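It is worth pausing here to work through a concrete case rather than discussing structure prediction in the abstract. The textbook approach is simple: state the sequence, then state the predicted structure, then interpret. We follow exactly that order.
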Amino acid sequence: MTKKTILARIEFYNFLSHYFWIIDQMLDFCLKQLQYARLLTSGALDSIALSTETDNLISERENILQVRKEIEAYLKQVKGLSSQIQGSISYCKTKENECSITVRSIKHRS
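Step two, the predicted structure:
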């Protein structure tokens, strides 16, 4: 049995860049929807007066505040993911000029 080195050239950075771009567009859509939801919660909070003594409205105000905190957390996560994806897109764009990478594998002959 002899060992022979095979060089395989794999061209995929252009595909990865496009794939990451699609993901970034989806994250951008999510970000816009979350910003819209945050505006809705602000409007809902503004419509409930602070001086209202009704237990029902106080409970609803607390629920809205909780939802707003969750929205803020999601916004932060989506922004973080988006910046990571944009970094990956930049990396792929620089690698696109190289066009390929080399992977070494060993083929066994019998």
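Step three, interpretation. Residues 3-108 form one domain. The chain has one domain: 3-108.
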